[in-house]
């Protein structure tokens, strides 16, 4: 794997609150190696380890992007949803930021059928075909289109299973993580002090509740993906 310098700064991470974990009563003992202290009833994440695993994750996505691999970013918390969408669009990745529909990956044939329906309805809307239907039929199809846009809009161009999945919140996205494990899809997971660090291929210990923390982690990964994509374009 390529080793590169990703400018991961401990002071910058502290300013973003990456080190703040959950309350000491709400933790997973398996996170003990990634916790450096307790302060005012909360665990403090060891940022040196955060930097190490974030760097490893950046190396992984850079190498994958430089080989034309496809990524899926998942994060459905309200405070993370917009960050996930913006990060994914910037790096030309697929994303899910509203609700993970069970079986989205493990039952890919059903998801593919829904995506075909979604694309057909979008085409019919753009060409004005929906507006030429009886009002009742048009209203029903427009509601269906709106529903599909909400839950599948971020993966509308996905033609097959992703090569790597980036998960913003392990607790919230446990079903997505289990599907990836079942299918053998490599995962990068942002984990807070209440998570299991042994489930993802690369677990990045960090605050998964603070917007600034989530933004910082995603920005580093997105930069690495974009750099990798540029390398792939230059050396097809």
TrEMBL record:
<dbReference type="GO" id="GO:0003735">
    <property type="term" value="F:structural constituent of ribosome"/>
</dbReference>
<dbReference type="GO" id="GO:0006412">
    <property type="term" value="P:translation"/>
</dbReference>
<keyword id="KW-0687">Ribonucleoprotein</keyword>
<protein>
    <recommendedName>
        <fullName>Small ribosomal subunit protein uS2c</fullName>
    </recommendedName>
</protein>
<dbReference type="InterPro" id="IPR018130">
    <property type="entry name" value="Ribosomal_uS2_CS"/>
</dbReference>
<dbReference type="GO" id="GO:0009507">
    <property type="term" value="C:chloroplast"/>
</dbReference>
<keyword id="KW-0689">Ribosomal protein</keyword>
<dbReference type="InterPro" id="IPR001865">
    <property type="entry name" value="Ribosomal_uS2"/>
</dbReference>
<dbReference type="InterPro" id="IPR023591">
    <property type="entry name" value="Ribosomal_uS2_flav_dom_sf"/>
</dbReference>
<dbReference type="InterPro" id="IPR005706">
    <property type="entry name" value="Ribosomal_uS2_bac/mit/plastid"/>
</dbReference>
<dbReference type="Pfam" id="PF00318">
    <property type="entry name" value="Ribosomal_S2"/>
</dbReference>
<comment type="similarity">
    <text>Belongs to the universal ribosomal protein uS2 family.</text>
</comment>
<keyword id="KW-0150">Chloroplast</keyword>
<dbReference type="GO" id="GO:0005763">
    <property type="term" value="C:mitochondrial small ribosomal subunit"/>
</dbReference>
<keyword id="KW-0934">Plastid</keyword>
